[in-house]
Amino acid sequence: MPGLSLLTNMDIWTWVQLFGTSAFVIIAYILVQRRQFFGKTLVYVGLAVVVLRMVLFDNPLAWRAYEMLLDKSDLDFRPRAMLRHNLMSLQRAPDVRYLAVGSSQVPAVFGRYDMLDDTNQVVVFSLPGMSTMEYVLYWESLVRQQPDTILLYISEFDFGRAPHWSQLEEAPARLSDLPVLWALLSGTTPVREFLPSFGRHVLAGLFPEYRHRFVFRALWDKLSFKRKVLAAPSPLEVADEEAQVVHMQRLTNLKNDYSNFHLSFLEEVFRRAEAAGIEVMVLEGQYHPDAYTRENQRLNEEVRRSILNLTQRYRNTSYISRTEVFEFTTADYRDGYHVRKESGAEFTKRLMLRLGESVAPGVK
User: Fold this and answer.
1) For the whole model, what pTM was predicted?
2) I need a labelling partner for 55 at 20 to 30 A (CA). Which of 166, 269, 278, 283 fits?
3) Residue 339 β-bridge partners
4) How far is CA 122 from the centre of its chain?
5) Residue 41 clears pLDDT 90, i.e. is over it
6) Sequential DSSP letters for 208-254
7) Is 72 in contact with 233 (CB distance < 8 Å)?
């Protein structure tokens, strides 16, 4: 039974949280029942909110239900991916050898190998458009996978993108991380640009109802027959020709305006990984060969040099260029950003051999 499987695969800390919260509510309710005091109704309301949050957010059955109820016409590709990650965050995490982290390019490169491999040699953690800022925002989710090594597939394509502040608003907020996050943002970006989203990030940390409001909005639209017929498909589902035209336009003459921003967050990942005893390998990312204008080639050299210099400052980090593994050709791409599954599996296989690993069973 799917529901029983979800419960048996729950993380131990999820069980502890559920039982602890349940015990707290029961004990508090009994104590309140026995006493008469001003504000008793407010206490009941508070306990009801705690129970409601436990039912709606703190158990995998709820997230599986949301996932089943909300299909591709109800949610865009990024919220759908967030549903999946919320579900996985409550499940028992496997011991992972290599955790491949990044945007939709990452499942395109590593996804087929991950699917064919049942030994957890390579596991994908990805959000569409995932940025260096989100490496830090989702750090606890990465560590939960217990990886020996984190693989970051990065290029000037990632460094050339402006920050998307909506990512800050959507991410889980840990109050202990807020000072570091503020320092990283204020050190690279004018405060007026990120302050509203930073405030909403804090608000989402205090009120999970606010952070997950996209779920309730989609459910309401569905129940009231206001379904989004034209919801955005996954980047891996768009027609190749259509996607390539859009991607090639976006890839033309990438800018180097945001390198300091991305380097700051990347260095924070290196610091955290070193403290946690996790190795980090930065893999030089790639995109469609026809998009390498003279300006992009210049930016490629600058970004590669900056990342290489940064990795040399941390003993647990390394940089692997594309020439050391596998350089994709035009025939390997299904659009401007994403390689074909077979080409991605070949890259991953060659990377494993390059690292002295045996190729996982089931991967040709």
Assistant:
1) 0.86
2) 166
3) 333
4) 16
5) no
6) HHHHTHHHHHHHHHHHTT---TTPPPPTTTS-HHHHHHHHHHHHTT-
7) yes
